[in-house]
Design a protein that fits this description.
The strands form three sheets. An eight-stranded antiparallel β-barrel has the order 1-2-3-4-9-8-7-6. Strands 12, 13, 14, 15, 16 and 17 form a six-stranded mixed β-sheet that branches. The protein is built from seven helices and 20 strands. By secondary structure, it is of the alpha+beta class. The N terminus is likely disordered. It has two domains: 191 residues, no CATH class; 175 residues, 2-Layer Sandwich (D-amino Acid Aminotransferase, Chain A, domain 1).
């Protein structure tokens, strides 16, 4: 009989993964010398034979390592490594019987028991991998950067061929987790389920949210206001989960790059997609062309004329709704979580005294005007935001 805590819609584990990402996480990006590993699914007498056969240690900084004596279950150690390879994923490794049984988890360990995440069973790793971080050269198995995301100790509740239940005691991850096989892809498809409630209060991401649209008006004469450019483009909500776009996010390569930069941080952003024309000014028709393109045309435009997401607001963050926080606090938190890079940028902002100057500059730059927002405004229809035409 199935454990009722582990019943899930297994195909949904692949949601949000492109075909390339799925293949990469499954190890299909390995170089040709991987063929020396033998028939898939056959365990060799040496538990590290697959690990060693897939690597050329004169080219990779990874440890060769050897099987070590078993440690008592109460002394088990674990590590989670964030791995920016062909596809971003988190490698979870548990010390067991002298090696590190490992799972590649594309979206990271779930934080809420309502979620089950794909966890691909990979080859056992040597104990030395508990401390490994660095850059694996391109063209090598698992090529990309890897760094320690969490580490600690764990307790075993159950360890079987198709199910592993543990209690993790890490710096970032704490609680009971179950890894269980689903039977797909030669036994490599597993899933991971959080068995404990989330740590601390948790509010689900509001994917049915509607962006706040300002009304047309004139500049206020007094009060505490934020003034920012009125960007012509396409307003969007962008959700990020497990380093990937989620929920209401448009399926765009530019946003996939943005999402990876957030790593394990989960957010819901309000922003506007903009494009620059040949003269460097905003080009709204280019945004429409990019959003309407499909297939090869979409890939060509993403490479030649990529969209930029100008981030306006942060309305949900790691299980916390920010809708009722004042605008100035939401902006402060946005600045803390937004990763650097050319794909996303927080909008420029000024106070009310600078509004006439910013309005004149907007006209010179080909912008339609400015948007003024009360610094204490909550996110919603009654926010009181105003667009002022140049």
């Amino acid at each position: 009989m199935k454990d009722p805590l582990l019943i899930s819609d297994v195909p949904s584990a692949w949601e949000g993964l492109s075909d390339q990402e799925a293949a990469a996480v499954l190890g299909e990006y390995a170089p040709a010398h991987r063929a020396r590993t033998g028939r898939r699914g056959v365990m060799a007498a040496d538990p590290l034979s697959d690990y060693n056969a897939k690597r050329r240690f004169d080219r990779t900084p990874e440890p060769a390592g050897r099987e070590q004596a078993e440690r008592p279950p109460s002394a088990g150690r674990f590590v989670v490594q964030e791995h920016h390879a062909t596809a971003l994923h988190w490698d979870v490794r548990l010390e067991h019987e002298g090696t590190l049984p490992s799972w590649a988890v594309p979206k990271g360990l779930p934080r809420h028991p309502s979620r089950n995440h794909l966890a691909v069973r990979t080859e056992d790793h040597p104990i030395e991998y508990l401390d490994f971080e660095g850059h694996i050269p391109g063209g090598e198995y698992g090529g990309g950067s890897m760094h320690l995301w969490d580490r600690g100790t764990y307790e075993v509740e159950e360890w079987g061929e198709r199910k592993v239940k543990v209690v993790l005691h890490g710096q970032r991850v704490r609680g009971r987790y179950a890894f269980f096989a689903t039977g797909g892809r030669g036994g490599r498809d597993w899933m991971v389920h959080r068995m404990d409630p989330p740590e601390g209060p948790w509010t689900d991401r509001p994917d049915d949210l509607v962006v706040v649209e300002p009304s047309i008006g004139s500049l206020p004469v007094r009060g505490d206001w934020l003034v920012e450019p009125w960007w012509p483009g396409c307003r969007v909500l962008v959700a990020v989960e497990g380093g990937r776009p989620a929920g209401p996010t448009p399926d765009l390569a530019e946003l996939r790059h943005l999402a990876e930069g957030f790593g394990s941080t989960e957010v819901l952003l309000d922003g506007v997609l903009v494009a620059a024309g040949p003269d460097g000014r905003p080009d709204p028709p280019a945004v429409e062309r990019r959003l309407g393109a499909k297939g090869a045309a979409a890939r060509r435009l993403a490479a030649s004329s990529p969209l930029q997401l100008v981030v306006l607001d942060l309305v949900w963050h790691d299980g916390a709704s920010l809708l009722d926080l004042p605008l100035h606090e939401r902006r402060r938190r946005l600045e803390e979580v937004l990763p650097p890079g050319p794909v996303a940028a927080p909008t420029l902002q000024a106070d009310l005294a600078a509004a006439p100057t910013l309005l004149a500059a907007a006209a010179q730059q080909g912008l339609p005007g400015v948007v003024v927002k009360p610094l204490g405004s909550r996110y919603g229809p009654a926010a009181g935001w105003i667009t002022v035409q140049a």
